[in-house]
Predict the structure.
Amino acid sequence: MSHRILIAYDGTQQADRALAFAVDHIDHDAVTLLMVLDPMEGFLDAFYQGSTQYEAWHQMAKDQAMKQLEAARSRVADRAEVEIDTVVGQVPRQIVTYAEEHDIDHIIVGSHGREGVSRILLGSVAELVVRRAPVPVTVVR
């Protein structure tokens, strides 16, 4: 039976630690690095300048994400077979949906370590993924 791992990747140090942990500690047959592009980043520009601005943001964000994902893949290519992908939407929801739609067996996310008021106000991607995911989730600090 194959074991498919999804690593939520956003280019941060925490995401790099999650990737390293997955490759070193988890038995797997396939690893997917997924970067979720949050459309809220481009929403205000689209609202004030028209839909072509949103489309430009989306293309720029996707191009930048693919560069980061390729760089991350190259760092571990000798230790794992890694696929890369991007999706657009609300980050926790898209991670869970992707796992459901791609027969993922395990999700790994990095923790940003927010506490107190900032965690309450900003929410926690890791916490929401843990609550909603239909598969085991490992949170790496």
